[in-house]
Each structure stands twice: as structure tokens, then as C-alpha cells.
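User: Just a sanity check before I run the rest of the batch. Below are the C-alpha cells for the first item. I only need the designed sequence back.
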């Protein structure tokens, strides 16, 4: 995956096309929601793993998968999809190491997505 971009620019362009001429306001809003929500979903992964709550774990992984796909964070989407699949098919026994992969991929995606936001 070394040559795969962290953020698929086509996904960004697709979001821009939903509200052309707004100076990227819609795009920045979507990115802001993603950057605020995803750490909460990652926390849910850890909490539901500790509680052995496969249903909540699977829902959190599914949410991360969908939102990262919308923004073109392909590696994060793939990691979340793998987590979701594993939780559905095998339970929570082998998912702990993959939660770290989701965390790491989110950190990488966050750096790239923040480039679309105004400096604060």
C-alpha cells in the first residue's frame, strides 16, 4: 500500500461537486465532523472490546468504515472493514491488534485531511 494515497483525491472531488461554488465550506464541514466523530468511534471500539460487546464493536467499526469511505481514507476504510468482518464472523477474540491499526490509519488520514481546513 506504499503507493496508495492516504486520501483518494477523487472522493474529495466528489464531495466538492455536491456543493460547487461554496469555497469548500461543505467539504470542510464534512471533514470536521469526521475528525470529531471518528475518535469517539475508535474509543467505542476499545470500550466495547473491553466489555466483550460484539454488537457495539461491529457498529463502531461499520461507522468508521462508512465515513472513511466517504472521505476517501482508503487504508482506514480497509482496516475498519477488516475489523467489522472479523467481529461478525469470529467474534472479538482476535480483533485487539487491529484496533491499533485503525488508530494508526486514522492518525495518518487526520494529518492529510487537516490540510483542507483553515489554520487555527
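Assistant: Here's the designed sequence for the first item:
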Amino acid at each position: 500500500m506504499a503507493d496508495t494515497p492516504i486520501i483518494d483525491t477523487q472522493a474529495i472531488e466528489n464531495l466538492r461537486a455536491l456543493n460547487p461554488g461554496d469555497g469548500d465550506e461543505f467539504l470542510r464541514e464534512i471533514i470536521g465532523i469526521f475528525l470529531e466523530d471518528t475518535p469517539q468511534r475508535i474509543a467505542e471500539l476499545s470500550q466495547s472490546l473491553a466489555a466483550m460487546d460484539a454488537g457495539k464493536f461491529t457498529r463502531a467499526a461499520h461507522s468508521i468504515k462508512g465515513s472513511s469511505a466517504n472521505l476517501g481514507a482508503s487504508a482506514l476504510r480497509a482496516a475498519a472493514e477488516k475489523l467489522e468482518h472479523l467481529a461478525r464472523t469470529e467474534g472479538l477474540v482476535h480483533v485487539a491488534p487491529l484496533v491499533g491499526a485503525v488508530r494508526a490509519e486514522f492518525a495518518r488520514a487526520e494529518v492529510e485531511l487537516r490540510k483542507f481546513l483553515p489554520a487555527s
